[in-house]
Specification:
The complex is a heteropentamer, with 2 copies of chain A (212 residues), 1 copy of chain B (227 residues) and 2 copies of chain C (194 residues).
Chain A (H helix, E strand, L loop, with lengths): L1 H20 L2 H19 L6 H21 L3 H4 L3 H7 L4 H30 L5 H26 L4 H25 L4 H26 L2
Helix pairs in contact in A: 1-6, 2-3, 2-6, 3-6, 3-7, 3-8, 6-7, 6-9, 7-8, 7-9, 8-9
Chain B lengths: L1 H28 L13 H28 L3 H31 L9 H21 L5 H28 L17 H42 L1
Helix pairs in contact in B: 1-6, 2-3, 2-5, 2-6, 3-4, 3-5, 3-6, 4-5
Chain C lengths: L1 E10 L2 E11 L4 E5 L6 H9 L6 E6 L6 E4 L11 H11 L5 H11 L15 H13 L5 E5 L7 H14 L4 E5 L12 E4 L2
Parallel strand pairs in C: 3-7, 3-8, 5-6, 6-7
Antiparallel strand pairs in C: 1-2, 1-4
Classes of the chains: A mainly alpha (212), B mainly alpha (227), C alpha/beta (194).
Bound molecules: protoporphyrin IX containing FE (HEM), adenosine-5'-triphosphate (2 copies) and magnesium ion (2 copies).
Chain lengths: 212, 227, 194, 212, 194
């Protein structure tokens, strides 16, 4: 169980860093709120429910992207990532901890966004909440790996969206589907499948991304 | 060295023979399609190219897996070359497909065909692969990153396929319906020859490009040794 | 402990190390010298496992957790305090009696007073001291020190001297330095890169 | 005129940095196409034109956040900003040059995004272009100042996002207004006024942000 | 050239410098020593105008453009090459005959071969050499050098010695260092912080 102790130590540090510097969460909140405000202004009052759900998913996706872009910012200064890579813990623990951190940020952003959405647009059903939770898992899993990749490159900020968007199109499909269609179970199942496949892949391949 | 060279020559010869044969068969021997007429013959080019593109991506991912497994640097070049070929065949698919679409549907592009959308997603994905490669310094790190991303690609293909099937339920209804591959026997033979030709073309291009790149590297080393 | 055969590393087309053979046995002290840009840091990063060789091979028969690697940068979070950084590393290295060990180290390297200060606001010498604490924290059997004296004042230099002296025999050391006078008396091997 | 020579030298360097990662333009193109595919999957076919305008603005806001987030990334490493501050040029030249850099970045992004938008969604009118240009000016002016605050750690307490939100929402509302409403002149005027006020404010106050 | 009266600086509640009086005349060389964290870098940043005093005052009667400030970091863009960095600074400082000056400096500090290399991939000593080029580029009348020797190999150290020696009298110098032996013979004043 030292694995989980390692993950806990690393995740604790991420939360501490965010509390200390408040870099990421405010930007995510700002973005998601202003996205909803913009949509509120631009959607006519008679727009279909499906249209506003689609917009919500877009807002959530880009918010996640914003958060992921900063996920490894603290590690890039002073080469801390090398320090972590040298520690005897399994490298995948670094991935898992960062994932948990991203999930917490996403959760907080959505805890603001979903009520705001309910206020501006329409009530939030259980299937939306379930879909958002499942989508978060996938986004965080894939996103953390890709953020580590982008951090190792020269054009990091520009690269992440390019690496990220094509990979998460299935998540958008599943998420929108689960909220728009009458029978959400299939879509939720699909999201869960996506999470499983890509979480395992990311977990297994993180080692190669951070170490030579 | 000479053995390798021989193999490349044989491959190239086989590919060109098959290519000529396939084209000739497609143009002159295959029966005319009942409702699409002559333009349907592009099918013998378009579909083998598309399938070859998938084969390239798969081959690239296999080499990527080998790289991560054995950490032998040569697999990096092999994986990259395969993906590179895949993207070239992908562009050809897009071009031939678009021409066909223009002829038979009257539009260059439509969102309603699942193969097209799937292909676009994959195409974007592999463009990002190149971006990734070009913005990391050459070396073991870049090899690892590219390999991991190439592996994600083959996982993405079935998942996207599933996603796009699911999406058809709530996005646009399918406008153009097609009945599956109901080919007559002779059509199927021609198709198989064309597919073999395309795969042969890939194999030949792949070995050639690899040999060229290896030669480049050797040359650079020799030049350095001289300095 | 460390053995390299035909070791080489290139960055792109630039060749930094080439055809290096090396054998460091347990308890030895290897002094690495050479002009700027000769590849000392690259060699130490190869030994630490942060870089992979592009030619030849290098083997270090110790698990990661028993190695301590001091780089040019401190490898600590700027936004965390000294204590928080060491605590994190202490947890990751499963240091027994973490609190006490960290406290003793901070005391020894004169950082106890500043333990609650953001590392980003440390002076350069303080950052180097903290980096030394980080490296020694888990009592590594192999120490890779890249310019350990840099930025340190006279009193901290003697601390490093002490670390080198007390390791004598019990711990393997690789030290890269531009001030070899301090290290040479203790070195059992010397490697001059060019 | 050394003022403008300084600005030119600084802006030239930004372009050079951008060119160093060489792939900015292709990256933008890819990003726009990926984003369009995501939009395709999340918007139902019956979504109104206004919804797509909203999407366009969100995409632009995201791009601006992305650009501003990395505006001072190069300067933060190795304390280069201090190096620039010590140079004999007027400090506001640093701001102006960075602003121009951000504007070029935004301009390139929009030169790709607007035609794509016109292609996939609906034609782009002159008022949309005017609104985008005016909005860009405001976003770049304010954003550069705030990004510098975030980068110069001594101004850390003045949190970028908390300021950015109230400062930028008017721009977005003005921009959406200009494109959605029948009579865009009022909104465009508002945007121009905003630009003027905040450009002058930012220009004058930059010195205090980067030097003690 | 530099005069300080009752100079003090605190960071938050932490007092780093207090009640410092100082007078450096044109052509002098002031050597600043002191243990880690004693405020040497803070003092030099105050002189450069990067920090403002929280108590007392400091005056440097030279415009910004005539001062050269060498910090712990190189103050150059990692993603640009050595040449591009110097070119930028040359333009900002309006250096006459930019090309030739830069070429001569790079040659002198042994970076001519690496002029087209990304600074981010420079070794530590190469970065320090580049920082020295940057500082000397505009022929400043006042040089503030914060640990100029750090990270340099033996040959580059003598280059710095030369810079100090040739400035004698014509240029005002403030040098903070942990290796005062090199500087002391030339120093006209010494300040030991505690
Ligand atoms: C931009 C991309 C593409 C375009 C524009 C395109 C267009 C077309 C068109 C117009 C047809 C004829 C449809 C018909 O028979 O009525 C066709 C058939 C076909 N395409 Fe594509 N295609 C594209 C990509 C792909 C891809 C990526 C595949 C991957 C396997 C593919 C596989 C096929 C197959 C198997 C058929 C034959 C279907 C049948 O039997 O009718 N296409 N394509
Ligand atoms: N990522 C990289 N890309 C290209 N070149 C690199 C990279 N890293 C290091 N180098 C080059 O490798 C050479 C050796 O660098 P290294 O840092 O090992 O030198 P060093 O001996 O530690 O020098 P110093 O005494 O200055 O610290 C340098 O010429 C440097 O430019
Ligand atoms: N931004 C800051 N916030 C808080 N404290 C700071 C800040 N900058 C410096 N200090 C503190 O001021 C003191 C002096 O720092 P300074 O960098 O001037 O020391 P120094 O004499 O240069 O030391 P060294 O020899 O290690 O370089 C240190 O204790 C440092 O922690
Ligand atoms: Mg070094
Ligand atoms: Mg200092």
């Amino acid at each position: 169980m030292t694995y989980f102790a390692d993950v806990a130590a690393l995740a604790r540090k991420d939360i501490l860093l965010e509390l200390r510097s408040r870099d990421t969460l405010p930007a995510m909140l700002l973005f998601v709120v202003s996205a909803l405000v913009v949509f509120h202004f631009s959607l006519p009052s008679d727009a279909s429910a499906a249209a506003s759900t689609g917009l919500l998913w877009i807002a959530l996706l880009f918010t996640a992207l914003l958060g992921l872009g900063r996920a490894f910012a603290a590690e890039r200064e002073q080469r801390v990532l090398d320090g972590l890579v040298l520690a005897p813990c399994d490298r995948s623990a670094i991935w898992l901890a960062k994932c948990l951190g991203v999930l917490v940020f996403l959760g907080v952003a959505e805890a603001v966004a979903l009520p705001a959405y309910a206020l501006f647009f329409e009530p939030v059903g259980w299937e939306l909440v379930a879909a958002v939770v499942l989508a978060d898992l996938g986004l965080a899993a894939v996103g953390t790996l890709l953020a580590a990749m982008a951090a190792a490159s020269r054009a990091r900020e520009l690269l992440l969206p390019l690496l990220f968007l094509p990979l998460v199109i299935p998540v958008v499909v599943g998420g929108v589907g689960a909220t728009v269609v009458d029978d959400p179970a299939r879509y939720l199942g699909f999201l869960a499948l996506y999470d499983l496949i890509f979480a395992i892949l990311s977990w297994a391949s993180f080692e190669y991304v951070v170490a030579e | 060295m000479s053995l390798r060279n021989n193999r490349a020559v044989v491959l190239a010869a086989a590919a060109s023979v098959l290519l000529v044969a396939g084209l000739a068969l497609a143009l002159f021997w295959a029966p005319e399609d009942a409702d699409q007429g002559f333009s349907q013959r592009i099918f013998y080019v378009h579909v083998p190219i598309a399938l070859t593109a998938y084969a390239c991506f798969g081959w690239g991912a296999w080499k990527a897996l080998r790289l991560l497994w054995t950490r032998e640097p040569r697999y990096d070049l092999e994986s990259y070359t395969a993906v590179h070929m895949g993207v070239i065949f992908g562009i050809l698919t897009l071009v031939t497909g678009s021409i066909w679409a223009k002829i038979s549907w009257g539009v260059w592009w439509t969102w309603s065909e699942r193969q097209l959308t799937l292909f676009l997603v994959l195409f974007l994905f592999y463009c990002a692969y190149f971006m990734l490669r070009f913005s990391v310094e050459p070396g073991p790190r870049r090899a690892n990153l590219s390999a991991v991303y190439a592996l994600f690609g083959v996982a993405l293909i079935p998942v996207s396929f599933l996603a796009i099937r699911l999406a058809e339920n709530f996005i646009h209804p399918v406008v153009f319906t097609r009945d599956g591959p109901q080919m007559s026997g002779s059509m199927f033979v021609v198709f198989c020859v064309c597919l073999a030709a395309m795969l042969g073309l890939f194999a030949s291009l792949y070995t050639n490009e690899l040999a060229g790149k290896r030669l480049d590297a050797r040359l650079r080393e020799l030049r350095e040794a001289l300095e | 402990m460390i053995s390299a055969r035909g070791l080489g590393r290139r960055f792109g087309s630039k060749r930094v190390l080439r055809d290096l053979d090396l054998e460091v046995r347990s308890g030895e002290l290897l002094l690495v010298t050479g002009p700027n840009g000769s590849g000392k840091s690259t060699l130490l990063a190869l030994m630490a496992g942060l870089l992979a060789p592009t030619e030849g091979e290098i083997e270090v028969d110790l698990p990661r957790g028993r190695i301590g690697y001091l780089a040019h940068e401190a490898l600590v979070y700027k936004e965390l305090t000294a204590l928080e950084n060491l605590d994190l590393y202490g947890r990751l290295y499963h240091v027994p009696e973490r609190r006490e060990t960290i406290g003793a180290l901070l005391e020894r390297f004169g950082l106890w007073e500043s333990r609650h200060q953001r590392v980003g606001s440390f002076s350069r010498g303080m950052q180097q001291r903290l980096a030394l604490c980080r490296v020694l924290l888990h009592g590594p059997e192999l120490l890779l020190l890249d310019e350990p004296y840099s930025g340190l004042d006279a009193s901290a230099r003697t601390l490093v001297d002490d670390v080198l002296a007390e390791s004598g025999g019990s711990r393997t050391l690789v030290v890269a330095s531009h001030e070899p006078e301090h290290v040479r008396p203790l070195a059992t091997q010397a490697l001059a890169l060019a």
